[in-house]
Specification:
The protein folds into 3 domains: 77 residues, Arc Repressor Mutant, subunit A; 96 residues, Periplasmic binding protein-like II (D-Maltodextrin-Binding Protein, domain 2), CATH 3.40.190.10; 108 residues, D-Maltodextrin-Binding Protein, domain 2 (3-Layer(aba) Sandwich). Helices cover 48% and strands 21% of the residues. It has 13 helices and 12 strands. Strands 3, 4, 5, 6, 7, 8, 9, 10, 11 and 12 form a 10-stranded mixed β-sheet that branches. It is rod-shaped and about 105 Å long.
Length: 348
């Protein structure tokens, strides 16, 4: 007698085949959905690539007028041109936008939902092409500036006093002027720097603020005090008998001593070199040491301390600059600060 086939084994074999076929079909359907989605996105991207401001403006007016004719009149285009734009919009968003009813043309539900997004889109595009402005009275902009303490005292100090009234919310983040500052300016880590005797570079915008001269700073009762009264200006020969305190200023490669008081440049009388102008008064007030400081700083020191000063060597001085990068040429905030610095330091 022939043996009947094992039903469970056959069902398992064909059941497994059906399951494998079903899984493959699901994977194929998923891949097809992905492909259709990618094609849909590509089609939308292609449509957006050809989208222009006139199309958006047309849609904005159409949403307000519900009339192709009146929209065409507002835009100054022909009725056929308006119809072509409407066809493009319909094709792009997959909605008729405007339909004919018994009571006339009406916007679709989807079209009505587009009022705010279209207004926002046009406003955002307008913002992109709107010239930037700067209102110092309302701005809380933070200026990033590299400077020596002299720049703070001679330029930023007088400006802050004025800004307290005209631009009360402006902020200043001042970092020490060091060789790295020039790289920071190039990289955009700072907005500008204050510096003297700078060689011009193609990528820097250099604005001279003023020409500065020197005065010699010394204590009251110093032997130079009586000597200075009889002379228009002291010379290196006049200060050579005394110990010299020198300021070391930052350059593009490192600190350099300001040797204007030296008679022969050998540095034999320079007892103290340091990179701070505002500490010089503390170094000369109790000794016969002398220091040459910029005139603007000497004037402030005389107001705050009993120290004396006298003009030093006619023709000895330096120009002082506000330096920024070429990319800030049309920055309204930086341009405004530059103009204020010019005006304030001119009359300071």
């Amino acid at each position: 007698m022939a043996r009947a086939p094992n039903r469970s084994w056959a069902e398992g074999l064909f059941g497994g085949a059906r399951l494998g076929f079903t899984c493959q079909l699901a994977r194929d359907r998923h891949n097809l959905d992905d492909a259709n989605g990618m094609l849909g996105m590509q089609a939308m991207n292609d449509g957006l690539t050809s989208l222009d401001m006139r199309t958006l403006r047309f849609l904005q007016l159409l949403l307000r007028t519900s009339s192709v004719t009146r929209t065409a009149m507002h835009l100054g285009i022909s009725q056929p041109a308006a119809s072509r734009i409407l066809a493009r919009v319909r094709d792009l968003i997959g909605d008729p936008v405007l339909i004919r009813t018994q009571s006339g043309y009406q916007l679709t539900d989807h079209a009505l939902s587009l009022n705010e997004p279209v207004d926002v889109a046009l406003s955002a595009i307008a913002d992109v092409f709107r010239p930037s402005t700067f209102d110092p009275a309302q701005s809380s902009h933070c200026y990033r500036i590299a400077s020596t303490d002299y720049g703070v005292a001679a330029v930023l100090g007088p400006m802050i006093e004025v800004f307290a009234v005209t631009a009360p919310a402006l902020r200043f983040d001042v970092s020490p002027l060091v060789p790295q500052s020039f790289s920071d300016l190039e990289k955009g880590a700072i907005d500008l720097l204050l510096y003297a005797d700078l060689d011009a570079r193609d990528d820097l915008l250099i604005q001279k603020l003023f020409d500065e001269t020197y005065e010699v700073l010394f204590r009251q009762g110093h032997p130079l005090e009586e000597h200075a009264v009889s002379k228009q200006a002291l010379t290196p020969q006049d200060v050579s008998p005394y110990r010299l305190v020198e300021f070391s200023f930052p350059g593009t490669t490192g600190l350099k001593p300001d040797t204007i008081m030296r008679e022969d440049g050998d540095g034999s009388h320079a007892v103290f070199q340091q990179p701070y102008f505002t500490t010089l008064p503390f170094l000369v007030r109790e000794t016969d040491a002398v220091a040459a400081v910029p005139k603007r700083l000497a004037e402030q020191v005389r107001k705050l301390t009993p120290l004396c000063s006298a003009p030093f060597q006619p023709g000895c001085g330096f120009p002082y600059h506000l330096v920024r990068h070429e990319r800030s040429r049309h920055n309204p905030a930086v341009n405004w600060l530059k103009e204020r610095a010019l005006k304030i330091t001119k009359f300071d």
